[in-house]
Amino acid sequence: MHDDQRPEAAWGLDTLAIRTGHDRTHEQEHGEPIFPTSSFVYGSAAEAARKFGGEEPGNVYSRFTNPTVHTFERRLAALEGGERCVATSSGMAAILATALALLSAGDEIVASRSLFGSTVSLFDKYLGKLGITTRYVELSDLAAWEAAITPATRLLFAETPSNPLSEVVDIAALAEIAHRHEALLAIDNCFLTPALQRPLALGADLVIHSATKYLDGQGRAVGGAVVGRDKELEEVFGVVRTCGPCLSPFNAWVFTKGLETLSLRMKAHCTSALALAQWLVAHPAVERVHYSGLADHPQHALASRQQGAFGAVLGFEVKGGREGAWSVIDATRMLSITGNLGDVKTTITHPATTTHGRLSEEQKAAAGIAEGLIRVAVGLENLEDIRTDLARGLDALV
Ligand SMILES: *Cc1c(COP(=O)(O)O)cnc(C)c1O
């Protein structure tokens, strides 16, 4: 209600993350309230008719209109620089809703090969059933993207930087290719968040989030979101409204509060990750470190230009293959052995037997998932304690 009096257009990212999207109610609360209600009441039959018919804005039913969810949506839209955001029950629901909204039988997707595992299953198994086919290409190879596009291609889908090898694609160049072929570009921005990368400003049409990761940042809730233009988001909203993968008010509130510290957290995550990567490079048990913040990473220059920092997920290969990697993981006492990431708690995982375990040997080789590869998602504990926990197993391998 005060939007037109607020100087939001001039606000920086940290201010938007803290101040935008909340209209104070008559209770004059300082913090953002939660509205745990399934439905809303009307003053009259005529008002109900107008709100149901969309002639008058207002809340109807929490599958598609809830003030707490709306606060999160407005805040994330502002951070990503999008016209509109639609929140969903998970990151996967955000990708599903986008596909159902924008694609039909016979349409094609071109996607980067190194995607989140469930995204690949969604594309191949479930969208495949609906007659939507996906071709996969090497993330950083722009010529391969262009070559995979056919007249049926409607959507280009990329996750950058990739997990766990930290490969990067030039978003502006990929957007130009997509638009030349009348396709849309969607970027899964989970790993960097709008604090470090704003794909819409670089020409992407849609941004996908698993809010479960850094937007919350403390591993408390599962949720997701799609951000972009009104035109496409109205279709995504239609899917969420009708099919029902909606975000709960409680989770929306958790994410709204998470956004308030996003930028500070991301800076701290990235500072520790870079220092850890440099320390790993120098360790004699480590054969290779994959992190775009290192000067010898193949896309270091692009990452430096496109990203505010290099993210907090890094991969490193140790001596001794699977046995070596497992011994380093098992020697930790503090790090959480889990496939999750985007948490204040540092996590460690062996991609070849967990997150990428369903891939064939050839697919693993093509994706660069070596048996000695370990992925660490660097949290916010003291860096010295993270190093000590890793050094125990690494020193024993030398
Ligand atoms: C976790 C994740 C998803 C899926 O999100 P959920 O909230 O777990 O459904 C999608 N993309 C990336 C890059 C992820 O890390």
From TrEMBL:
Keywords: Amino-acid biosynthesis, Methionine biosynthesis, Pyridoxal phosphate, Transferase. InterPro entries: Cys/Met-Metab_PyrdxlP-dep_enz, Cys_met_metab_PP, O-succ-hSer_sulfhydrylase, PyrdxlP-dep_Trfase, PyrdxlP-dep_Trfase_major, PyrdxlP-dep_Trfase_small. The modification N6-(pyridoxal phosphate)lysine is found at K213. Its cofactor is pyridoxal 5'-phosphate. It comes from the Bacteria. Pfam families: Cys_Met_Meta_PP. Belongs to the trans-sulfuration enzymes family. MetZ subfamily. This is O-succinylhomoserine sulfhydrylase.
